[in-house]
Amino acid sequence: MHPTMSFCLHPRCILLAAVTFLCIWAIFCPSEIRKELSCTPLMPAPAAPVPPLSLPHLLIPNIGVCTGLGSPLFLLILVSSAPDHQEQRDAIRASWGALQEIQGYLVRTLFMLGEPSNSPLENIKEVLKQEAQVKGDIVQAAFMDSYRNLTLKTLSGLAWAAQYCPDVHYVLKTDDDVYINVPGLVAELKQRGNDLKKDWQQRYLDRDGTAARSPNLPVPYLYLGHIHRRVYPSRSEYSRHWVSEVQWPSARGPFPPYGSGTGYVLSAPVLRLILRAAGGVPLIPVEDVFIGVIAKRVGVIPTHSIRIAGASRYPIDRCCFGRILLTSHHIEPWEMKDIWELVKSSSGNRPLCSWLQEALGMLRCWVIHHWHF
Ligand SMILES: *[C@@H]1O[C@H](CO)[C@@H](O)[C@H](O)[C@H]1NC(C)=O
């Protein structure tokens, strides 16, 4: 046998290969490590005065959702849905959307809709009204529901949140084909919120050590998602993501970093900054890019989380969906219920992940995803 070949089967060589693989993964997979390197601003610059945002009025305003809850809503989940997607909405209602409280932290899920355009269903308007009345979780605004109007849908939802849920701490914007690990997300936001507050105190308040114990701390600035960087606008008029030269001039280069629209979180102060600045920016029809553009304007740097899967579809797996991932895209309505059953803590007394799976966490889900084990 050739000497180098026998050397490469040596355990040390295998270990070296494994370490190299891990390093490459850590560098190229935008990760927590990168987040640590980019410095999240704690006090963004104030937005320059801009014309107020004019949005379509609400057809189904549903203004009572956040009143009389007893304590402030911790997380509002705004699901972008199409009028004829009742099956998708029902699947969410029957699975993760049913969760309204996680260890004392209140959560609500609402569906954002526009007006049905040319739906094959004749009586869809009546059906929708009924659905909204019975379920009480629909907000509908007066604009034509189309892919190129999704930015209007998001803005209507965010404006609704700011107006009718003024005490909410975090808002998650997502779509009706995304599985949300609600307990995981609440825990993550609690943790990040505490860390950011501690940072904030140390920098700004903790001069004499008293403010650190103050219970009335503000909700920190947070824009969390699966962050896309250096994405250039599509100039093909046939593309769903077409952005015109007026909306984003080529001279400006790539878009600023933005969180994939499949799931991004804005904390209340960021939400308010974004709404205040949105009127001064051309309405880029790609909803998630638009939020990234305004965030950049108001000085909010997005934070990447490898647990937010973005647009990738991960194979259904109990540990990944129940513990590690916070959002997972491309989930069909029937799969929502399947995953929900799978991750229910009562399915046996088996823990969601073994200690090894938990420790390797994201790496494990990522490997399953890429190699379809
Ligand atoms: C967006 O909604 C408005 C208001 O209903 C409508 O006039 C417009 O045609 C819609 N745009 C697209 C691209 O669908």
TrEMBL record:
Record-level GO BP terms: ganglioside biosynthetic process; protein O-linked glycosylation
Record GO terms (molecular function): glycosyltransferase activity; N-acetyl-beta-D-glucosaminide beta-(1,3)-galactosyltransferase activity
Gene giving rise to this polypeptide: B3GALT4
Localization annotation: Golgi apparatus membrane
Annotated EC: 2.4.1.-
Record's protein name: Hexosyltransferase
Swiss-Prot/TrEMBL keywords: Glycosyltransferase, Golgi apparatus, Membrane, Signal-anchor, Transferase, Transmembrane, Transmembrane helix
A Pfam short name: Galactosyl_T
Classification via InterPro entries: Glyco_trans_31
GO cellular component assignments: Golgi membrane
Gene3D superfamilies for this protein: 3.90.550.50
Membrane topology annotation: Single-pass type II membrane protein
